[in-house]
Each structure stands twice: as C-alpha cells, then as structure tokens.
Amino acid sequence: MVQVETKISSLFINGEWHDADSGQTDAVTNPATLQTITEVAYGGEFEAKRAIDAAKTAFTEWSEMSPRKRSRIMYKAHQLMLDDVDRLAEILTTEQGKPLKEAKGEIKGAANFLLWYAEEANRIYGEWIPSSQRRKRILVVPQPVGVVGAITPWNFPSSMITRKIGPALAAGCTVLLKPAPETPLSAIEIVKIFEKAGLPEGVLNLVTGDAKAIGEAMLSSRDVRLITFTGSTEVGKYLMRESADHVKKLSLELGGHAPIIVFEDADLDVAAKLTLGSKYRNAGQTCICANRVYVHESVREKFSQKLIEHVEALKVGDGSDPSTDIGPLINEQALEKVENHLNDAVSQGAEVVYGCSKWNGELDGHFYSPTVVTNVTDDMAVMNEETFGPLLPLQTFTDEDEAIAQANNTDYGLAAYIFSENLDRSLRVMERLEYGIVGVNDVFPATAEAPFGGIKQSGIGKEGGHHGIDEFVEQKYVSIGMH
Ligand code: ADP
C-alpha cells in the first residue's frame, strides 16, 4: 500500500505549506482497519482568515489573467492527476474505505471535471442586448464572483473538490478549500497537483481542521462572496442562515432520499443489476444512491429474486483488496445509523430477506453486510431519512400515480430513478418527479458535462456542465449612453 508520512503540514496558504499555529494535529484513520494513517494540521479561524486574505490578494491577477492561460494550468492539473491515478486511488481508499476500482473511477471522474472546466474557461460569453432606445447600448459582462469558500464531504473526497474548484478557477475566482476531516489526504494531493501545474500563489488555499471555526471565518468575512458546500442538509441550512448577514451567494448540494421505481414493463435484469449498483456503490454512502425501491407488485417476486442473486455475490472487505465490492462505512456513527434504520423497520414489521448485521470478518473496521428488507411502510425511518449505508427497503405499488406520489412524498429532491421500457411512460413519469436529476434506465448520472443538483431541501444550484460555471459568475449589466 501507499506510504504516507506520519505527520503532514496540511495548511496551504499563499503558496506555502504550514502546520497549525497552535501546533494541534488531527488523526486520519483508515476505516477498514481503524489504524491511524497520519496526522494533519488542525487549523482554525486564524489560519482560515489568513487564507482568505491570500485569496483576496491573488484575486486581481488571477481574474485578470487570460482565460487561455488559466485553462492551460487547469489542463496540466488534469493531466497530472491522470498520470498518477493508481497512487491517488490508493490514498483515497486508505482514508475513505471505498474499493480500489471505485477509487480509480473517482480519480478519473475528478480529473474529468478539471478537463471540462479547462475547456469551459474559454467559453464564458457575455451578451449584447438590442436596446429599445436608439442611442443606447446594453452589454452583459460575466465576471468572477470573487473569493470562494469551498466545503467538501468525505464520500467523494476527490471529485467533490474538483467539481467545485474546477468551475471556480475557470471563472477566475480564488478559493479557500476546507475538506472533510475524515479525508484530508485526497485534498492535499489535489492542491499539490495544482502547485505542480503552476497555479499562482494564493489562488487555491487549503485549511484542514476545526470545521465550525473555519466555516465561521468564511461566514463572517465580507471578502468571501460565495460558499459552495456539499454535505448534510442540516449544515447546509446552518450555512444558509448564517450567510444572511453578508447576503452571500450559496451553492448547496445537500442530502437526498432517492427512490427507484421499477415498473412492470421494465427490463428486470437491467433494473436489478443497476439497483444493486446504485444502492451498494460506496457502501451506500452517496447522496444520489437509492434509499428506497418501489416495485410493481406483479414483478416483485421476479425482481427481488434477481436482485438478491446479485447481492449474494457482493464481497465485503478492505477496499484495498482488489476483489472487494463493498468497503467499510466511514465511522461508528454511520454504522449506528444503518443499524437504527434496520431495527426501526424490523420492530414495525419489516422482513429481512437478505443480510442484516455487522460484518463479522477479521478486520476491525466499520463494516456492514448488504441487506434487503421488505414489508416496509411509509412511516419507517428508512423510508424517510437518508440511510447512507447498504440497507435496501423494497415496497410494492399497484399503479403509476401511486408510485409517483410515494416517490415525491419527501422533503428531498436530488435524484430519482425509473425503470421502464415504455417511452411514453418514462417521459410522463420523469416530468412529474419532483427531483433535480432523473435517471431513466440509468443510475449513474454524475458526469462532468451535465448539471448535477437538487431541488426542495436537497440544495440550490448546479455543479457540472456549462451550468456549473454560472454559480461562480456575476452578470454585470452595462448601460451605455451615446451622446
Ligand atoms: P456528514 O455528516 O456527512 O459528515 P456534514 O454536513 O457534517 O456531513 O459535513 C460536510 C462538510 O461540512 C465537512 O467538510 C464538514 O467538516 C463540514 N462542516 C460540518 N459542520 C460545519 C460547520 N458548522 N461549518 C462549516 N463546515 C462544517
């Protein structure tokens, strides 16, 4: 496995690596073995403020640099990332737990965001609007919002960063990045890549450590114009409330509670295989993974049989073992949440048809066996709250309207999926689903070229696609009088 130093100076401020001023450090743990991998700096408000100052100073030069030049640096970072995919994937698996094959996929996807936004940097067009008055001209000039605070989660420690800093840097913004405390190593690697690619000092700054204090430094700064956040709805709401004083822009990717609807006219082999992919990828720790499955009662038996055949074949273990399909959950609380959802469901009459229980393998990590339950009802926790683990509840429905109503019966609105071979029905149902993303016979919608984002309490704004740039750009209206 990859070698990591026992202590890392993980604060990158104005082009230099530092320890925390207090000398405090924070352990990074391998969730498969519970061994400490390394210690990183535990920074706080002091370091975050310095980083914001550095980003503010760097903004003028970076925002005025030609897009082509910015693009070249980003393209180089993309290339450096791809050149190092194996090592970066090993680091990711060590700190996050996901199987190596998934980690490699994530690094490639992360690099792809840099490539996409290296290209988009050159295409941030303005407008010339025909005026209603003969001696006036109207221009719309896109300009970078300014200093950006980026707060990222542990479930995709690499791609959630590039999906934010890619468009930010392309637009000409400068950044203070605060990664999740569970997975700082992937963030450090990305920053090193940009350092190597020739990013000017102060453009991208990294502060690991006290989430609340770093967040407060962002919130209380009049220089931080946008906070881009991916994480829980609870923290998203907190950031929204606290942003009011400075009327900051916000881009929020929050929780989800994705339904999968399997209609009676679905290709059941495809539906079962992809349901498995959606639910058990990253051990169920993705915000767009299926939280609940509604299957038409006429195909319930066939579908669950096929699904369970796939689930049985899954191998739980250390993600660094190439044969592993499901790695550990990130921590003890994550494990407890899955257990609570299962116990709550079973106590109210749900039937476990496969799996159940902590994995009793040889490793100490937070493992949970993939589990399928039926006889679930709408009021069970698993049908309402984000489980973020490998527990899959199956419920039946009898008609289309009922399935749509059940799917929409949530405060979340990130992703929903339908399986049907009927095009009319697929379009009809897609239009009625109150979600930012709908997968039709597909459960892997996240990609650099498409706008990813939720509605309702799942968030505000889009990441990915040319739409992703919009978050980081202000449209300046210029009215020109000709005298
Ligand atoms: P999860 O429960 O999945 O870890 P969180 O929303 O708690 O989701 O975390 C997502 C990111 O938000 C992480 O980087 C975390 O450190 C950060 N975070 C958590 N609380 C705060 C806060 N009060 N202010 C700023 N960032 C926070």
Taking the sheet with the most strands, its summary is: 7 strands, mixed
* Proportion of residues in extended strands: 15-25%
Return the CATH class of the largest domain.
Alpha Beta
Q: Which geometry do the CA atoms define? A: globular
Domain module tally? 2
CATH superfamily of the largest domain: Aldehyde Dehydrogenase, Chain A, domain 1
Residue-averaged pLDDT, rounded? 97
**Biggest sheet: strands side by side, in what order?**
15-16-17-14-13-18-19
Low-confidence stretches: none
The CA-CA distance between the termini, in Å, is 71 Å
CATH topology of the largest domain: Aldehyde Dehydrogenase, Chain A, domain 1
Give the helix proportion (percent range): 25-40%
Cα Rg: 23 Å
Explain the overall architecture.
By secondary structure, this protein is of the alpha/beta class. It has 2 domains: 7-254 and 458-477, Aldehyde Dehydrogenase, Chain A, domain 1 (3-Layer(aba) Sandwich), CATH 3.40.605.10; 258-440, Aldehyde Dehydrogenase, Chain A, domain 2, CATH 3.40.309.10. Helix content is 38%, strand content 21%. The chain has 14 helices and 21 strands. The protein has helices at residues 45-64, 67-83, 85-96, 100-120, 159-171, 184-197, 211-220, 233-242, 268-280, 300-312, 332-347, 400-408, 423-432, 467-470; strands at residues 7-8, 11-13, 16-18, 25-29, 36-41, 127-129, 136-144, 147-151, 174-178, 204-206, 224-230, 249-253, 258-262, 290-296, 351-354, 371-374, 391-397, 415-419, 437-440, 459-460, 473-481. The protein has a 7-stranded mixed β-sheet with strand order 15-16-17-14-13-18-19, sandwiched between helices. Strands 10-9-8-11-12-20 form a 6-stranded mixed β-sheet, sandwiched between helices. Strand 18, helix 13 (423-432) and strand 19 (437-440) form a beta-alpha-beta unit. It is globular and about 75 Å long. It starts with 6 loop residues before the first strand and ends with a strand. It binds adenosine-5'-diphosphate.
